[in-house]
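[job 0412] stage=fold_complex status=start
inputs:
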Amino acid sequence: AQTVTQSQPEMSVQEAETVTLSCTYDTSESDYYLFWYKQPPSRQMILVIRQEAYKQQNATENRFSVNFQKAAKSFSLKISDSQLGDAAMYFCAYRRINNAGNMLTFGGGTRLMVKP
Amino acid sequence: DAMVIQNPRYQVTQFGKPVTLSCSQTLNHNVMYWYQQKSSQAPKLLFHYYDKDFNNEADTPDNFQSRRPNTSFCFLDIRSPGLGDAAMYLCATSRDLGPHIQYFGAGTRLSVL
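[job 0412] stage=fold_complex status=done
writing structure:
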């Protein structure tokens, strides 16, 4: 079974600084998807960024980028120029390619605090 | 312009008293999911519907049931809530099975007294 581990229960960053959230996973599959979801307090979870394992190039979405190390099974999220609105729980998630049910396996989450 | 809407946002029920949580979507997605999320934990999938086909996770307790009367609505029924069922319940949708993004509602926080 696949597992996803986020080793940092909480992180804090100063506004305008850069922070990196860690995620590791365990799988025997060669093709899969990885995601970072953001869950602000009392609001819905939204997709931040997605990475296909067969792509070597790291995904980027504006201030958000990932460092995908397939051999190390590592998938960290870098947030540049942190803003107060970035404060949230961040979940790393894994999905098998051949998963007819589109099931996501989530990590335990990292709570990010942004200091003004 | 919320796309996945969960009602109510907060629900209080008594131990053993049946409760129903609702989810509606304006995305016309085929798939709807229900997750349970306990405090500071990852969401745990309970079941999903693909159209009218119901798919239960192997470890979902029988106490949890679901109904999907039409494409837009899906309900989570907890027949006899226990104290351990207090959690946030998240509804999500995706356009289809396969590698499609899941869109989440804001959740319903259930308290059991």
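[job 0412] summary: Chain B touches chain A at residues 2, 4, 9, 31, 40-43, 45, 48, 50, 55, 90, 92, 94, 96-107 (CB under 8 Å).
[job 0412] exit 0
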